[in-house]
Design goal:
single chain; 404 residues; seven-stranded mixed β-sheet; four-stranded antiparallel β-sheet; 34% helix
Length: 404
């Protein structure tokens, strides 16, 4: 039976002392805490005259009243009270009936996560504990001293940094009544260094490697094909490894957008070579068919003869249109026109292929730089702002009117 049964409600003070935090499991969306749960309350039935506090045997705890504290949203298969070498529990009784109870626990609790900003994300995990069977008319939870003591916290998380811990007192309303509870919020921020080295830098280098094909000879088909396929396959491998530790969420993360953009640049470089190769193969066909054009009196073949030799133009135009005069300095668009409509102009075909490579040497790096500026300006400022706005981890806010 609780103290003051049928009378005034019991006011229970509680706090936590963290021994270790982690690991934080992204795939299962859970995190693990090893802590000391401390609770104090008054029980007039334990008044005594001794000056010193009485230390009770933990084996006798079943013979006295203890609050029915439970932790919500926990994985009970991986949560337990430490029992080796003996039950890790302690209870002391002061002469005025103040009871101090402490137990060492390992808790694995659920933590709903949002990975839209991964790996520049901040996750807030909640730990809520309170009475299971006593409503607010019988038992009320309050913080005493510091809500969370981190002085004994020695283990640092490998992938996350602990930014802040916030506390609040809540009333949990159910069909059976209103129950007092305490809620702690742990704010974790992911460390970016591992992903910079393991994902962002390799993706960037692969994209830059794909640009090497723009400087290779336009006739070096085997080298350019091998380079393009290798970079595409490497991007597929990196995209798979980047999501290996994440659950199958229905949205794209920041890492997904970066990898997808890098894959687009690499694939575009491969398609650029396909276009260049199309023109070069067209040049080979023209060269072969031009040798079969009959010449009379060493005079150059007419336009109609050239068209008949190559099977006609790729686009339609007036047959009576005069030949476009050849010039040394002609525009990129006119070269394209001559390549498509006057296939006999082998010089223009080779020029257009060369111009495509020359423009790609500028446009691809410029586009990738612009993408990076936009990408990092969207995701990095919120990440840095949250890192700078860290609060006092031990938020020693006492409940108003607390007696402790």
């Amino acid at each position: 039976v609780r103290p003051n049964a049928g009378g005034e409600k019991v006011r229970l003070g509680s706090n936590l002392a963290l021994a270790s935090i982690g690991p934080v499991n992204d795939f299962d969306m859970v995190y693990t805490l090893q802590l000391f749960l401390r609770q104090i309350w008054y029980d007039d039935r334990f008044l005594h005259e001794d000056e010193e506090k009485i230390k009770l045997n933990p084996n006798k705890l079943e013979q006295m009243w203890l609050p029915d504290t439970y932790v919500k949203y926990t994985d009970y298969a991986r949560s337990h009270v430490h029992l080796l070498p003996r039950p890790n529990k302690m209870i002391r009784v002061s002469r005025d009936g103040l009871i101090y109870y402490s137990a060492r626990l390992t808790i694995t609790a659920q933590c709903p996560m949002d990975f839209r900003s991964f790996p520049m994300d901040t996750q807030t995990c909640h730990l809520e504990y309170g009475s299971y069977g006593y409503d607010i008319t019988d038992l009320v939870y309050e913080y005493f001293e510091c809500s969370v003591d981190v002085e004994s916290l020695k283990v640092a998380l490998a992938q996350y940094g602990l930014l802040a811990i916030y506390n609040t007192t809540i009333i949990d309303t159910t069909k059976t009544g209103n129950y007092s509870a305490l809620k702690l919020s742990f704010v974790f921020q992911r460390r970016l260094g591992f992903f910079m080295i393991g994902s962002y830098l390799p993706c960037t280098l692969i994209v830059m490697l794909s640009w090497v094909s723009f400087w290779l000879n336009t006739e070096g088909t085997p080298a350019r094909v091998a380079l393009g396929i290798m970079t595409v396959l490497n991007m597929v491998t990196l995209s798979s490894s980047a999501r290996a530790t994440l659950p199958k969420v229905p949205y794209n993360s920041a890492m997904d957008w970066f990898v997808l953009a890098c894959f687009g640049f690499v694939f575009s470089a491969l398609m650029e070579f396909a276009i260049v190769n199309f023109f070069m193969r067209r040049l080979e066909i023209i060269a072969k068919k031009k040798n079969r054009v009959p010449r009379q009196n060493d005079q150059p073949p007419t336009k109609k003869a050239r068209m008949a030799a190559v099977g006609g133009p790729l686009c339609s135009f007036d047959e009576e249109e005069e030949d476009i005069p050849e010039k040394e300095n002609i525009s990129f668009l006119k070269n394209m026109y001559r390549c498509l409509c006057l296939p006999s102009q082998s010089v223009e075909i080779k020029t257009i292929a060369t111009h495509i490579d020359q423009w790609s040497r500028v446009l691809f790096p410029l586009g990738f730089v612009i993408f990076n500026i936009v990408y990092w300006s969207i995701y990095l400022p919120p990440y840095m702002t949250q890192a700078l706005q860290t609060s006092d981890i031990c938020n020693c806010r006492l409940t108003k009117g607390c007696m402790w």
